[in-house]
C-alpha cells in the first residue's frame, strides 16, 4: 500500500498492511520554520509543501492539514470572530490596527441597521514567522447581538472559495499518493460558539438560558455547515473538526445532553458526503469515550498522554470494539522536544505496541511539533515507528 491508501484504509475502519506512521506539523511557524527558515511565513501553500516534503524525506505516511488563509488576513471562520472581510449595505466594517509589543490588535466596529457589534482579533508573533491567533474581544454579548449577527453576517465570497480550491489542488499535487490532505473546519458547533462569546458564559449558558443557547448553536450551525460544504468542494480527503472546547470541562452528562446531538448531526452531514471526520480533542477525553462511540466518527485524535491530556491507550483497548479509528500520539513536548533520542525510541515503541491492540490505529505525534524540537528526535520517532509498524 502507498501512504494514501494506508491512511484512508485505517481511517475508514479497516486494517492496512501495517500501522500508518505520520506526524502532526502545523503549517505556519513552529517546527516547520526551523527546518525551512527561508520560507515566507505567509506563503501557506509553500509551507504545506515543506510539511509534505519533510514527512516524505522520513519515509512517513504523509498527513498535511490545510488551514485556509488570505494573505495577512486569517479567514474569519477559524477563530470565531465575525466576517470583517466582507462588507454589504447592512454590514459596514470599520477597522483599526494597533500594536502592543509582539501582538497586533485588529479592532473592528461593525454597523448594522439594528445596532453595532465590536470585536478584536489578535495576532501574536511568538518568534519571527511563528504566530498565534485569537478573538480577544468577543462580538456576541447577548441575544440582541446574536440576532444582528444571524441576520446580517455576510457569507463566504466566491473568490474565497476559488482560492481554497486552488490551494488544495497545489498541495494535493505535492502529496501525490504518499498520503492525504485534510482541512480544518471552523470547529464543531460548541467550539465555534466559544469563539464569539465569553468563556465565562459558555460553560453555563445551556443551563441558565436554554433558549439563548439554542440560538447560539443555530448560528454556529449556519456558519459551520456553510464552511464545511465549501471545504468539501475543494476535494480534500478528510475534514478535521475541533472538539476540544467541550473536552473534559463539561463531563459526560452535560456533553451527552447539550453537545453530542449537535456534533453527531454535523459528523453525519460531513461523512454522508464521503469525507471522513478527524475529530480533534487535544485535552482530556477519556471520560467522553462512551458518547464518542455513539457519534459515528471515523477517527478521533490525538489521545495526548499525561501531562498534556489524559490519553490512555491501554485503558482504551478495554472499552472499545472498533467504533472509531484512534490516532494515538507520542508526547510532542515532554518526549519529542525535551527528551533524549532514547526517550523517544522507548516511548514510541511503547505507544505503537499499545496502539496495535486497538486494531484501528494510527501512530502520530500527539499534537503539532513545537519550535525547537531536535531533528534527531523526530527522526528517532519516525525510525522507531516504521520499524515496529508491522502487525
What overall geometry do the principal axes of the alpha carbons give? globular
CATH level 3 topology = TIM Barrel
Radius of gyration computed on alpha carbons:
21 Å
Pairing-aware structural class of the strands and helices? alpha/beta
Residue share in helix: 40-55%
Give the biggest sheet.
7 strands, parallel
Share of β-strand residues: 15-25%
What's the helix-strand series? HHHEEEEEEEHHEHHHHEHEHEHEHHEH
Low-pLDDT ranges: none
Supply the number of structural domains.
Answer: 1
Number of β-strand runs:
13
Q: Please count the helical segments.
A: 15
Rounded average pLDDT: 94
CATH architecture: Alpha-Beta Barrel
Adjacency order of strands in the biggest sheet = 1-8-9-10-11-12-13
CATH class: Alpha Beta
Question: In angstroms, what separates the terminal alpha carbons?
Answer: 14 Å
Helices and strands in order:
Blueprint: H1 3-11, H2 30-35, H3 44-57, E1 62-66, E2 69-70, E3 73-74, E4 92-100, E5 103-112, E6 115-127, E7 130-137, H4 143-152, H5 158-175, E8 179-184, H6 189-196, H7 199-202, H8 205-208, H9 210-234, E9 238-242, H10 247-271, E10 277-281, H11 289-293, E11 299-302, H12 313-317, E12 325-330, H13 332-337, H14 341-356, E13 361-365, H15 375-387
Parallel strand pairs: 1-8, 8-9, 9-10, 10-11, 11-12, 12-13
Antiparallel strand pairs: 2-3, 4-5, 5-6, 6-7
Helix pairs in contact: 3-5, 4-9, 5-9, 6-9, 9-10, 14-15
Amino acid at each position: 500500500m502507498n501512504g494514501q491508501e494506508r491512511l484512508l484504509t485505517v481511517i475508514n475502519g479497516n486494517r492496512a498492511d501495517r500501522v500508518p506512521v505520520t506526524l502532526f506539523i502545523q503549517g505556519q511557524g513552529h517546527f516547520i520554520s526551523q527546518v525551512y527558515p527561508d520560507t515566507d511565513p505567509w506563503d501557506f501553500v509553500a509551507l504545506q509543501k515543506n510539511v509534505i516534503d519533510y514527512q516524505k524525506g522520513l519515509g512517513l505516511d504523509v498527513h498535511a492539514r490545510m488551514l485556509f488563509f488570505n494573505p495577512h488576513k486569517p479567514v474569519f471562520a477559524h477563530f470565531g470572530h465575525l466576517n470583517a472581510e466582507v462588507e454589504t449595505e447592512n454590514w459596514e466594517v470599520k477597522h483599526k490596527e494597533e500594536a502592543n509589543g509582539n501582538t497586533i490588535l485588529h479592532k473592528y466596529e461593525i454597523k448594522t441597521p439594528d445596532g453595532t457589534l465590536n470585536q478584536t482579533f489578535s495576532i501574536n508573533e511568538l518568534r519571527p514567522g511563528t504566530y498565534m491567533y485569537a478573538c480577544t474581544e468577543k462580538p456576541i454579548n447577548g441575544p440582541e447581538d446574536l440576532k444582528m449577527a444571524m441576520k446580517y453576517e455576510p457569507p463566504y465570497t466566491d473568490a474565497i472559495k476559488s482560492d481554497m480550491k486552488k490551494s488544495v489542488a497545489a498541495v494535493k499535487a505535492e502529496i501525490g499518493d504518499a498520503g492525504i490532505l485534510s482541512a480544518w473546519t471552523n470547529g464543531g458547533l460548541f467550539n465555534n460558539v466559544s469563539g464569539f462569546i465569553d468563556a465565562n458564559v459558555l460553560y453555563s449558558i445551556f443551563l441558565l438560558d436554554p433558549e439563548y443557547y439554542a440560538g447560539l448553536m443555530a448560528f454556529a450551525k449556519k456558519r459551520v455547515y456553510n464552511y464545511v460544504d465549501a471545504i468539501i468542494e475543494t476535494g480534500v480527503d478528510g475534514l478535521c473538526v475541533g472538539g476540544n472546547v467541550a473536552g473534559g470541562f463539561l463531563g459526560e452528562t452535560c456533553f451527552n445532553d447539550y453537545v453530542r446531538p449537535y456534533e453527531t448531526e454535523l459528523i453525519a452531514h460531513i461523512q454522508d458526503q464521503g469525507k471522513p471526520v478527524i475529530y480533534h480533542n487535544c485535552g482530556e477525553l477519556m471520560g467522553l469515550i462512551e458518547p464518542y462511540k455513539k457519534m459515528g466518527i471515523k477517527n478521533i485524535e490525538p489521545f495526548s498522554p499525561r501531562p498534556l491530556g489524559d490519553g490512555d491507550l491501554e485503558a482504551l483497548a478495554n472499552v472499545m470494539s472498533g467504533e472509531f479509528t484512534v490516532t494515538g500520539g507520542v508526547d510532542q513536548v515532554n518526549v519529542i522536544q525535551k527528551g533524549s533520542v532514547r526517550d523517544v525510541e522507548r516511548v514510541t515503541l511503547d505507544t505503537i505496541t499499545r496502539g496495535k491492540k486497538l486494531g484501528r490505529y494510527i501512530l502520530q505525534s500527539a499534537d503539532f511539533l513545537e519550535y525547537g524540537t531536535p531533528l534527531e528526535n523526530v527522526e528517532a520517532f519516525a525510525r522507531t515507528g516504521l520499524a515496529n509498524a508491522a502487525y
